[in-house]
Amino acid sequence: MEWLNILAIVMPVVLVMIVGIFYNNRRIDDLRSDMNQRLTVMQEDIREIKNFMMELLKRESGWVIREK
C-alpha cells in the first residue's frame, strides 16, 4: 500500500472521532427525543381515529348504550 491509500483510510476515521468528541452525541439524543414526541402524537391520533370509528359503527348499527 502507498501512503496515499493509508491516509485515505486513517483520515476519515480520525475526522469521525473528532466530530464525535465535539458533538458528544447531542444530535442522536435530539433525534431520539424528537422521535418519541412524534410517536406520542401518532399514538394520540390513532386513539382518536379508533374512537371516531367506534362511534360511527355504533351509530350506523343502531347500537344504544342504556343507562342503568
Notes on the protein architecture:
By secondary structure, the protein is mainly α. The chain has one domain (3-61). The protein contains 2 helices and no strands. The chain is rod-shaped. It starts with a helix and ends in a 7-residue tail after the last helix.
Which ranges are low-confidence, i.e. pLDDT below 50, for 5 or more consecutive residues?
none
What would the average pLDDT be, to the nearest integer?
A: 84
The shape, in one word, is rod-shaped
Q: What distance separates the N and C termini?
A: 86 Å
**Secondary-structure element string:** HH
Rg is 27 Å
Number of domains: 1
Largest sheet: none
Class per helix and strand makeup: mainly alpha
Would you report the number of β strands? 0
How much helical structure, as a percent, in the residues?
over 70%
Beta-strand fraction estimate: under 5%
Number of helices: 2
Summed up:
The protein has helices at 3-23, 26-61. It is mainly alpha-helical and 68 residues long.
Topology (SSEs and partners):
Layout: H1 3-23, H2 26-61
Features:
84% helix, mainly alpha, 2 helices, 68 residues
